[in-house]
Here is the input.
Amino acid sequence: MSKGANELTLAEAARALRARELTVRELWDACAAAAHAKNGELNAYLELFEADGAAIDAAQKRIDEEGAAAPALCGIPLAVKDNLLIEGRVASAGSRMLENYRATYDATVIKKLKDAGALFLGRANMDEFAMGSSTEHSAFGRTLNPRDTSRVPGGSSGGSAAAVAADMAIAALGSDTGGSIRQPAALTGLVGLKPTYGAVSRSGLIAMGSSLDQIGPLAKSVGDARLLFEALRGLDPLDSTTIPEDLYPARPVPKKLRIGVPMNLLASGLDPDLKAVFDATLGKLAGAGHTVIDIGLPASEHALAAYYVVMPAEVSTNLARLDGMRYGRAARGATLLDDYVLSRTEGFGEETRRRILLGTFVLSSGYIDAYYRKAEAARVSLRYAYDGLFDRDDAAKIDVVAFPTTASPAFKFGEKSDPLSMYLEDVFTVTANLTGMPALSVPMGTVAREGKDLPVGMHFTAPHGAENVLFAAAGEVEKLAAS
Amino acid sequence: MATTDDVKKLAALARISIPDGELATFTAEFDAILAYVGQLEALGPPPAPAAEKPELRNVLRADGAPHAPGAYTEKLAEQFPAREGDALLVKQIITYE
Here is the structure.
C-alpha cells in the first residue's frame, strides 16, 4: 500500500480490513503511533488511551466472521471530543472544572459506536465547554493546525479536526452549537456535518446550548461523514429531543440541484481570494448542470446577534449545575455560598465566565423582553425565511443554500483577542443551529497565506431531515475539486 | 452602558467572582457585546405562526424505574467531594446558636 494505514479514509480502511490487506491491530497501531508521534507538537489529544486488546480482538473476529455484513465502523480507530462521556474515562470538556470528572455512563453515541466495534484513540482537545472558535480557550493548552502550526485549527472541536487532518485518527466525533464542527473542518481541510436537530442523541454530551447542540462527524471525505452519521443517528429514549427518521418528509435527491446563494450576505467581509475560490466552485457546479440562484435572505442579518443571546442564556442555565457540590472542582470556604463561588470562579475560564454573565444578563427580568424574546423572534423569522425557500414550487425553489463556511482561512494564534471578533467567526454557521437544519462543510480549495496553502470550505444547508441532499451536494463539490 | 457595579451584581447572581483587576476590561468587553446584540431591539414581533410543524409534540414515557435501584450509586458517590456512606456531605446551612 502506498498510503500509511493511518492515512486511509474510513471507507478505504473498512475495505482493506475486509480484504485482509490490513488487520485491526495494524490499523490501531498505525493511528496510535502517529498520534503519539505528533501529539507533543499539535496537542490534538488531551489523553491517549492504551490499546484495548479485547476490543481490537473482538472487532477482528467480527470482520473475519461477518465480512461485508460487519458494521462499517468495526475496527476503526476514532478521536472523541472531550465533552462526550465514555464510561470510566475522564470527560473534562476542556475545563478545570471537570479536570478529574470520570464519566459514570456511556453517551448514546459512544454506546452505538462500541456496539458497531469502533475503537477510541483518546480524548480530543476543545475550547472550554465548547465555547470558542480556535481551541485557545481550552484550559489545557491550545491545539495547533496541522496545515500551518502558527495558526488555529478552529474550534471548538479543534482537537478532533487536528487529529483527523494530521492522520492521528481515521475520523472523529465533535459537537456543534454554532459551527463547532463545520468551522474547524473548513480550517483543516475536512468534511464536517452538523445533523438535523434531533437526528443524533445528545445523551452523554456535556450540554452547552440545549436548543442548538448536535453531535456529528469530522471526516476525510463526504462518504466517511455519511457512514458515521448513519451509525450515530436514531431515536433515543434517553434524549427526548431525538426524532424518528420519518418525522420530516423524505426529499429525494434531484439529478440537478438548485443551489441558493445569499449574494447580499457575501458582498463584503470575505477575503477576496476565498471569494474567488467560492465563485469558481459555483461556476464548476453550474458547469456540471446544477442551477445557482441568487437568494435574498434578509433575516440572516440578525442571526449572529440572536445566537449570541440565545446561546449564553442556555449556557448560563446548563452550567448552573456545576457548583462544586456533587462532582467536579470543589473549593471550600467559610460558608456554603463561598463554596459555590470559589468552585465556580476557580473552575471556569475567562470566556466561560463571560458567557455565563451574558446569559444571566439577557435572562434577567428587566432585559428578557429586549434581548431573549427578540432573539427568539429573530430565530422564528429566520426559520420561516429558509422554509419559504425550500418549500415552494416556482422558479425560486432551492434544494440547498450555499456560502463559504468562513470569511477567511485559519487565523493566527492571538489574532482574535477581543471576544466580539472571535464571535464574528461564527457568522455563517450559526443559522443552521438556530433553524435546526442540517449543514455541512466540504473542502472547496485552498488560499495561499505566507507561502502555505490553507484549506477553505463550502457550506451547505438543507431542509430538516435532508442530510441525503447535503451529502449529494457536497459529493459534487468533492468530485469537482478533485477533477 | 454596563457599569462595573452591574457586572459585579451579575457575577454575584451567577455565583462567580470577577477579580477587581479584571473588572474594567471585562465591563468594556461586555458592553461591546451588548451593543452588538442590541441590534435585535429594532426588530418587530415575530411573524404569525405558520401551519403546525411536525416537531412540536410532547414526548412522554411511562412512569417506572428506568434502572435497578442502586445501579449507579457507587459510581456517582465516588465523584462526591466528601461523603458519609452513600450520602453526599455538605456544609451545615442552618446553625443553632
Q: What stands out?
A: The mean pLDDT of chain B is 85.
